[in-house]
Amino acid sequence: MSTHHLPESEVISVHIEDHIATVWLDREEQMNAFAPDFWVDLPRIMESLGDDPAVRVIVIAARGKAFTVGIDLKAFGPSMMAGGGLDDSDGQPVSGVAKRRDLYRSVKKLQQTFTAIADCPKPVIAAIHGYCIGAGVDLITACDIRFASRDTVFSVRETQIAMVADVGTMQRLPKIIDPGRVAELVFTGKDFGAAEAFEMGLISRIASDAGDVQKQAHDVARAIAANSPLAVQGSKAVLKAGEGRSINDALDYVALWNSSFISSNDFTEAITAFMEKRPPEFTGQ
């Protein structure tokens, strides 16, 4: 079990067992709409789990009928319509330029919420069901692996509410699926189901329902957690480092990585276990 102290949250709960941390979107009555607390709490939780040596894999799942319906417009709508803020600390009107500067800073903070998932050194699996709308797509595109239940409805919904998706979808989705499909989904804002998401490569498994998708995500998480955390986290780092590099530069990067890290206790244990015909017991050392 983890000895790390996790940040407290009223909208996210975390369960850690057998080296797997399950991060639950836990605002069931609101269909896990992302309220202000979420944007502050999630990056803190991801950072804590990333630093916790007891955690080797993270599953992001959701309570209730939906993974998420995206940003909580009831909470954010008024400030968005006002351009990011009406008054300064003295109650005086804020200039148009100052409003836009504040809004820019707010968007950058919101972006960091999902960048914290992408930057987490541990593998992150999304177990999606029900609805995955708007900012929900931003969240899952920051994950390494995505599974969904058969009933899932996806949508890059922002275009339909007269805004441009701005917290990750536009940057990450074209690296996952064909750019032409991205353009179709973004320009129309249409709903699409799990079958289409699977066909285009957004998800890699379709499960029967919420319970099944969460089970499958944890089954894969257990298989990952059984491997050396040094090798798994190294593989994630090397995959990420390969983005934007030439093949030769990426090959050089992994050569330098292994020359630095391959001489580990885990590597010795892997070879010893193979020779002794037993399962290895990795410690991450």
What strand line-up does the widest sheet have?
A: 1-2-3-4-6-9
Tell me what portion of residues adopts beta-strand conformation.
5-15%
Please tell me how large the radius of gyration is.
21 Å
Q: How many domains, in number, for the residues?
A: 2
CATH architecture of the largest domain: Alpha-Beta Complex
- Enter the CATH topology name of the largest domain: 2-enoyl-CoA Hydratase, Chain A, domain 1
Number of H- or I-type helical stretches: 11
Helix % is 40-55%
Q: Sheet with the most strands?
A: 6 strands, mixed
N-to-C order of helices and strands:
EEHEHHEEHEEHHEHEHHHH
Spans of at least 5 consecutive residues whose pLDDT stays below 50 are: 84-89
Distance between the termini: 17 Å
Structural class of the secondary elements?
alpha/beta
CATH superfamily of the largest domain: 2-enoyl-CoA Hydratase, Chain A, domain 1
Describe the structure.
The protein has 285 residues and is an alpha/beta fold. It has two domains: 12-225, Alpha-Beta Complex (2-enoyl-CoA Hydratase, Chain A, domain 1), CATH 3.90.226; 229-275, Lyase 2-enoyl-coa Hydratase, Chain  A, domain 2, CATH 1.10.12. It is 46% helix and 14% strand. The chain has a six-stranded mixed sheet, with helices on both faces. The protein has a three-stranded mixed sheet with strand order 5-7-8. Strand 2 (20-25), helix 1 (36-51) and strand 3 (57-62) form a beta-alpha-beta unit. Helix 1 (36-51) packs parallel to helix 3 and helix 9 runs antiparallel to helix 10 (247-261). The model is unreliable at 84-89 (pLDDT under 50).
